[in-house]
Amino acid sequence: MKTFSLLRSAAWLLVICSSLQARANTAYADDSTHQEKYVLVIHGGAGTILKKNMTAQKEAAYKAGLEEALKTGYNALQAGKSSLDAVEATIRVLEDNPLFNAGKGAVFTHDGRNEMDAAIMNGKTLEAGSVAGVSTIRNPISAARAVMEKSEHVMMAGRGAEQFAKEAGLEIVDPSYFRTEERWEGLQKALKADSMKSRLDHSYQPAGKLGVENIDNKFGTVGCVALDKAGNLAAGTSTGGMTNKKYGRIGDAPIIGAGTYANNNTVAVSCTGWGEFFIRSVVAYDLSALMAYKGLTVQEAGKAVIEKVGTLGGNGGLIALDKNGRAALPFNTEGMYRGMVTAEGKITIEIYK
To answer: How far apart are CA 200 and CA 246, in angstroms?
Structure first.
């Protein structure tokens, strides 16, 4: 009997040890890439991004684009520039790269236009600026910063934002600058799908039921969060929105607290995904609030807010960088273009889940 008892105790001890080891391994897998001190984190959109659908050439191009953006922001920080400078410079690189849905290469609206949104926020002062529905500003992120620094407002939209950007000395281009054939073909496919089914954009039904057949399979927003040598955080986001969007639709990217937020006391956040759900969940601010009021880590808070988006029926992800340089990059899609760089210059780039 004593032998049986000892064997049973040993068996339970083995189970407990195995369970603890499994938890330790899981925690390591979740957090190991985020324990170093990071100074810059970027994303290039989240969605149905599968390796089986990606050619080696295109994957290399995406990685090269992300690396160029990371190096640009890192060099700015190393030169002693502010986190705001680094965020703006990094996002401008992504806006100029037609692979990403921001600036050149932005997706088309239902009416065949490129309408872009962008926002930027200073974690030190909580100042913020954004533009929405612009079609002639080469780099919307720079227009967002101009709104923040050169006006008494936080958000400007449409022609007014374009006029302000021109008066602020920013580069204005013909709307044709943003066009790429790949994005135009994407619109034609979406229009064809619309003509076959009578339904609202993105199969969204006001009664609360959600369909996803007509949703663009890649939420192509770009974003950057940075921590400078002075300990200041900043966040920025830029997007062309969703393919075939209608009625002047605006997503979460230019809405402070929904798609973009930064606060030196907590975290800097940039989101990507189905904007309506990020707006309704006030994702970026909610992440900061969970850290401030509940004492959650950036990883815990990031996971919590993305789970909330998923519960509502939304898809997407985010990047977050806290005041200590800890990073979180949660998403509930098949992939998210993302990259990080440490204070020592070590670069990590990932695409798939």
So the answer is: 10
Annotated binding site: 249-252, 272-275
Which pair of structure tokens corresponds to residue 144?
């967002």
pTM of the model as a whole: 0.86
Torsion angle of the four alpha carbons 72, 73, 78, 84, in this order, in degrees rounded to the nearest 10: 140
CB within 8 A of 292, min separation 6: which ones? 263, 265, 266
pLDDT tens figures, 302-346: 999 999 999 999 999 999 999 999 999 999 999 999 999 999 999
Cα distance between residue 184 and residue 284, in whole Å: 31
Q: For the structural domain made of 36-352, what CATH number should be given?
A: 3.60.20.30
Give the annotated binding-site residues for substrate.
249-252, 272-275
Q: Is 353 helix (H, G, I), strand (E, B) or coil?
A: coil
| Residues with catalytic roles | 221
Residue type, position 128, single letter: A
Q: CB under 8 Å to 45, separation ≥6 — which residues?
A: 100, 101, 218, 219, 220, 221, 222, 272, 336, 337
Domain residue limits, the chain: 1-35, 36-352
Using the structure block, give the residue that is written with the tokens 């969940």.
281
What CA–CA distance (Å, rounded) separates 148 from 123?
13
Please state, in angstroms and rounded to a whole number, the distance separating the CA atoms of residues 285 and 265: 12
Tokens of 39: 């100074």
